[in-house]
Request: fold
Amino acid sequence: MDQIDIKILECLKENARSNASVIGNRVNMSTSAVIERIKKLELNGIVKRYTIMVDPKKVGLDLMVFMMVRLEHHKYNEGFSEFVRRNPQIIECQYIAGDYDFLLKIISKSTQTLEVLLNDIKCIGGVCNTKTSVVLSTVKEEYSVDVELEAGP
Reply:
């Protein structure tokens, strides 16, 4: 990946619907060359997918929480993970190190719908502890990494 690829990725990060001719103008390349580079970025797995960002509040999903979940034993991981994959309120799940095993990002309609989900999670085999934090406001929200990000000292 070279600097032109990085510039193309920056354009796509700003607006994944940008067409190749607009990107070509920004990176001083022909449309066909940009299309070819984008295809290579996709084939190499650098670009995983294209998506949209929906404002949860505008569609009636007013509550965002982060929930940490501890399991009794790692033998319960797959069952828990399967529940997570099936639940549309859980929009992100990370397997983590530390006092808890999983970190969930949940978007829910209300405290009542969250309560139902929390009770469902507590009934999953192996779940022994949860800790929930309610998001009051979002300071920063990015969905793609900065490809020029350098490691610190």
